[in-house]
Amino acid sequence: MPKDNGIGASPKRREDVRFLTGAGQYTDDINVHGQTYVHFLRSDVAHGTINKIDTAAASEMPGVVRIFTGADFEGVGGLPCGWQVTDKDGNPMKEPAHPVLAQGKVRHVGDPIAAIVAESLEEARNAAEAIELDIDELPAAVDMKAALQAGAPLVHDDLGDNLCYDWQFGTDTETVDKAFAEAAHVTTLELRNNRLVANPMEPRVAVGDYARANDESTLYTTSQNPHVIRLLMGAFVLGIPEHKLRVVAPDVGGGFGTKIFHYAEEAFVTFASRQLNRPVKWTSTRSEAFMSDAHGRDHVTTIQLALDADNNFTALRTDTHANMGAYLSTFASCTPTWLHGTLMAGNYKTPAVQVNVKAVFTNTVPVDAYRGAGRPEATFSLERLVDKAARELGVDPVALRRQNFITQFPYATPVAVEYDTGDYNATMDTLEKMVDRAGFEERRKEAAARGKLRGLGVNCYIEACGIAPSNLVGQLGARAGLYDAATVRVNATGSISVMVGAHSHGQGHETVFPQVVAEMLGIDESMVDIVHGDTSKIPFGMGTYGSRSLAVCGSAMVRATEKIINKAKKIAAHLLEASEGDIELKDGQFSVAGTDKSVAWGDVTLAAYVPHNYPLEDIEPGLEETAFYDPANFTYPSGAYACELEVDPETGKIEIIQFAAADDFGNVVNPMIVEGQVHGGLAQGIGQAMLENCAYDENGQLLSASYMDYAMPRASDVPFYKVDHSNVTPCTHNPLGVKGCGEAGAIGSPPALVNAVLDALNGGGYDVAHIDMPMSPSRVWQAMQG
Amino acid sequence: MYSFDFERPTTVADAVAALSKEEAQALGGGQTLIPTLKQRLASPSVLVSLSAIEEIKGVCNDGGVLNIGGGTCHADVAAAAASDFPALAKLAGNIGDPAVRSRGTIGGSLANNDPSACYPSAALGTGATIVTNTREIAADDYFQGMFTTALEEGEIITAVKMPIPEKAAYIKFEQPASRFSLVGVFVTKGADGVRVAVTGASEDGVFRWTEAEVALNGNFDASALDGLSVSGDGMISDLHGSGDYRAHLVAVLTKRAVTEANG
Ligand SMILES: Cc1cc2nc3c(=O)[nH]c(=O)nc-3n(C[C@H](O)[C@H](O)[C@H](O)COP(=O)(O)OP(=O)(O)OC[C@H]3O[C@@H](n4cnc5c(N)ncnc54)[C@H](O)[C@@H]3O)c2cc1C
After folding, report:
1. Most buried by CB count within 10 Å: which residue of A107, A293, A539, A561?
2. Could you give the domains of chain A?
3. What is the rounded CA–CA span in Å between residue A55 and residue A66?
4. How confident is the model at residue A4 (pLDDT cuts 50, 70, 90)?
5. Pocket around ligand 1: residues whose beta carbon is below 6 Å from it?
6. Distance (Å, rounded) from C-alpha A659 to C-alpha A484?
């Protein structure tokens, strides 16, 4: 019998009741009495010198409250970067100023130049058209490699060049060079990890509200981490102390990383509401989202694998150019380094691994973490490379992988991290059965008879979740801790509110977190609710990204619940006139071991708040505990994915036949939600591999600036997935043994798709070594033309 | 959106009168025009909605000619043509999504003449007649390049008369993002011979592939097209495909359309 309560059960998502009945409270649903509206006048050129911004006529337009420009932000802090990367010579990365509104220059299409605050949005837009701009357009740096050439246009004149940092990590050059020199075979691959736009269903919104009476600011914003925004904006940009700044992220309609970062619009509405003593609201249009939400990925990589005569991997070397865009977004610098380089060993026991990353400024929208953040780029490069090696060597790609799998744990990689557990052969075994790999060649023949090229692509992945041990990331340059926090407040009647630092924007925390507390106390889940998203209500936790919520914040919640249990046992011991050591908690009853004496959960909680018969001399009344949890290590979900598809050789069009994912997520609290997370991740991985392409022309104009040209995956683009998470190697260092499942689908799926297309083409006699994503019909057809 | 006056006449005559005002513009289903207005790329002073004019709505079969009111939405065409002209029903039934099909009209589509739109290929491929409040225009004379037609200022498409061919098929190869046609080919075989109309591909908008028509007039079979191709010169080249790719698709899809038309 499947459980219907607690850990391992799959209750329906509670939050869906309000989402599906239109009762969600999103930021745009928040309207504050007397609010004004801001419209941002954004640059339509990629690079230019601002000679003049004349707002005189515009300021006289009906409804205009005030027009702000960069000049109003002289002396105000710029948007900070949360991670300082050190280059291979020990120098700090270059960190350009990132003003809230452009000062002196515009650096990408969409860079905000002026902010028009008016009584209505239409009036603000009308006034924007009356602003006279005098901008001298400059040549733009768009292509990363060209941007590093001498004489390239400088995105930031004061930096001298467009190189943010040149980072090297892992095994020393001499060792790696020697391994390559001695290799029996070297496989080399050049590839691009395509730039993506996250496109959460809900665009970004920010409402700034200032209460002059007590000098308090409130920012309502579409954020994955309200405390991080309070920290960054309060401390670095506007200089508002924590107790005077409240950040609320209510229901948020999808984040995918792009709502982690602190954005100019948030700082603007907070700043302007204080200046004007009026609330200021901004709601992004979809067009603005394309040119102002941080983009994702955008790596150009050369990767090389050395193998010995027995096909053992002996060394790996990567050389990546990572696009930063025009400014450093909050976590832009760590995504291609510490979240990418550390995963470059993959599932393999390659003894020497060296990662080189050049981060480059260009006149494009800033690039930052997007679902998977660095790990998809690592997985894609490595798993494409291993597949290419297998083809070159004429060996079975799965056998080549298995031969090189890490099988002993814990395993310290040459790129700093230590995998605690895993069983890569187990997930691969499951996968091969799920897709009937043995029967594939028959299916290929049958398809060929219909004129179709059928291919099967396989890959594995490992990723690092549960971000992150604070002391470690501190050494690596993080400017914040990455612990999380939870407060468990038990009410007098035994019901419970858990205030968590994690933020749910689609993940289902409101359903899952109560399952854990209910399990620990032996009570019904319906007695537990979580509270999240408001810095005035929750402890200082760091929010949700990097598949960290359950592994880090959930662990804090477990620790706090343990404290509750300890105290409750003391109270129960008093009520039962027994010694504390003899008290057992089971099914919501405290009993004295070996007797039939017991007292119910609700009696104990009532005693805590009505302490008439209570050991007041020993313990305080009340039942509320907080815990902060800092993880000892990352967690390492892993798995194996496969895609089977058919290519129409006449048009290059791909039809996915089946997609299977065999994951090891450690322990699973709610299997239904885990499956949903994998499904969503796979859809995004399929989107990246098949459809999504954020493209700029050589002048820095965004070619894919709307859904007319930016292809999002739709229901008919994805198959019915086969997913499995029955292989469980629990995480060894957090109390729940959980690893995280939020990003795996997006990390693990793109190589399976590309590998499958190449298997189809090569199996059909087309000699094609690689196709860049997205594999649009035209690209596949072009590749087949030789 | 800039502000504008709004009128919703119930007869063609009233609509024509309303459209004679300075900067007046007709509003069909709004599926193209409304997004344009929202982006502030157009600023009509008066928007004249055609949606209340019953006389330009509906579909009837007049002795082998499908007479489609200019204000008929795609969903209604898809339903009404299902038995008499299934190729057209398929075309209309695959435009956009249900919301687009329930609002967008054939008149709006033909007036707009987007180079990637579907209807222009049906009109040209059937040798249709575009009927307006003042005259009748043969499809061969109507389409004059991307977003350009024979329509005069203020002229309203009141109906489209499409001779129902003996055989027909429309094959649409979707642009992955917009799902308009990257290339679409409408092939018909009727009393006056074969017509092959291609949309999505050319920088000049919808066109007839006359070479293919000649070959198919001789033998209405996909094999008659073996060795025939169109040049990639003058074809649209963008993020979604080069001119050469589009030219290649024209040949592939024409063959597929002929095969489908032959059932
Ligand atoms: C998401 C989406 C997907 C789409 N996909 C497709 C597709 O796959 N294939 C495709 O072909 N189209 C597609 N379209 C376009 C759709 O078919 C539109 O309905 C059509 O292009 C315009 O018709 P309308 O009635 O909405 O015209 P409107 O938007 O109202 O008007 C368009 C233009 O035509 C003029 N006009 C309107 N009616 C008349 C008339 N009777 N006489 C004279 N002038 C008139 C207007 O003044 C305006 O200039 C799509 C649209 C959307 C929004």
Report:
1. A107
2. 16-22+483-629 (3.30.365.10), 31-138+204-283 (3.90.1170.50), 295-468+633-784 (3.30.365.10)
3. 10
4. confident
5. B 25-33, 50, 70-71, 95-96, 100, 103-105, 107-109, 111-112, 114, 117-119, 156-157, 179-180
6. 35
